[in-house]
Amino acid sequence: MISLSLEFPHPVEIEIVSEWFMSLGACAVEVSNQIVETDGPCNTKAEEFSSSSGTKRKTFRVLLPCDVSSEDFLMSLASFSEWNQIKVLEKATVEETDWVERVRESFIPITIGRLYIRCPWHSIPETSTGKDELVHMIIHPGMGFGTGEHPTTRLCLSWLQRTVQGGEKLLDYGSGSGILCIAASRMGCELCHGVEIDIDSIRNAEENQSLNSISNISFFQPLEAPSCCYDIIVSNILFHPLVDLAEKFSQCSRIGTRIALSGILCGQAESLKAIYEDVGFKFEDTMIENEWCLITGKKI
Question: Which PANTHER family does the UniProt record give (predicted)?
């Protein structure tokens, strides 16, 4: 297998270039930024390609299978007038790799409190019984965010374990892989609704729901979500979407509804609290991991 590192001297559309590389026989494409020092001001048209210290260019690492000639590949690129100035930064031979196995090896089982989160290909460990018994969850990594590795996911999972008493109705807005709904169901929630804008993430979440043999979870896109009053609301997305959702969360909550918001940086917490307090929530705790935080409270 041949690895080529290629650089364009001008801004390009990543998706178009990557698709064209694949059509010419590439089996994988990786994109990164490279800062190139300049003596004068940057004159590129797109702001994303400029910085105070130089020009930020897109570097593509292309993998070619053994039956694709690197010379033919580069000649095909050079035949396009817009691409005939591509610079080959590096050419190297790399060993054949089982990429599926490589990806699998990158995921390891995670324990968060009493939750034991594993992928479908991990073996089931021996578990203790009684109060120390682990609660098992299977998450297949896919398009949906949430495998238990990111600090915000861990913060939300820890909070759910302290909050769910049993019998609650829960809303997870921005449900990603479905990991929070699955955990809430395992903890004893009566009903869990996950709302997610990305249809591929919903498919991933439904796959994970099936892997865990859970029937009390439903996933929806925003316009399809039912109007319900929830006992617990959790949302692990980003600051600006959370700002936009404040009024909606107020409408689908009642006095005493518990709420947890994450996906935000520590410096954004106070601003978000103020916005939600204006629509009837009172915040009690802030939990921090690295630069990420989770703010929790209730409807008053």
Answer: ELECTRON TRANSFER FLAVOPROTEIN BETA SUBUNIT LYSINE METHYLTRANSFERASE
Running DSSP on this structure, what letter comes out for residue 2?
E
Tokens of 23: 């059509």
Cα separation, 262 vs 241, in Å, equals 11
Taking the C-alpha atoms of residue 166 and residue 48, their distance in angstroms, rounded to an integer, is 49
pTM, to two decimals: 0.68
Q: Which two tokens stand for residue 63?
A: 């993998």
Q: Where in the chain is the domain with CATH 3.30.70?
A: 2-97
Domain 2-97 is found in CATH 3.30.70: yes
**141/193 Cα distance (integer angstroms):** 20
What six digits make up the tokens of 244?
A: 């936009």
Q: What's the one-letter identity of residue 29?
A: V
Which CATH superfamily, name and number, covers 103-299?
A: Vaccinia Virus protein VP39 (3.40.50.150)
